[in-house]
Sequence to fold (132 residues):
Amino acid sequence: MFGLLDRLGATVAAVAGLIVGAAITFAVLGLYDAWIDDPAVARAAREGLVAASEKLALQGQIEEMRRQFKLAESAAAGDRARAEAASRDADDAWKRYEAAVAADGGDDGCRVTDDDLGWLRNARPAARDSLP
Fold:
């Protein structure tokens, strides 16, 4: 009879141990969920990461815009230099043309007067002093 009671007591003790163990596990997991794996904590952490990643993306966009601005600035400087060289070449060509007309002393009977040279200078296309 005592053997039966011993087995019954051991079974009750085992079941009670499982219940206590389950309760302790549930309590520990509840504390873990509330303190460590809390959704509010995870949300706050994600908000910080989102702000940091947005800041990094905006900094990248700013750097790209600066790079493009520098490229456009250097291209504009090159275009400006070529335009100024073309303007100088056009001025030189007009001066050579005026000198050739003034020096024309051919035997065709046509003489170039100062009024003719003045008209030639006025007929010249207007030189643009500044480029847009």
Remarks:
- The two ends are 114 Å apart (CA to CA).
- The chain is about 80% helix and 0% strand.
- Residues 1-37 form one domain.
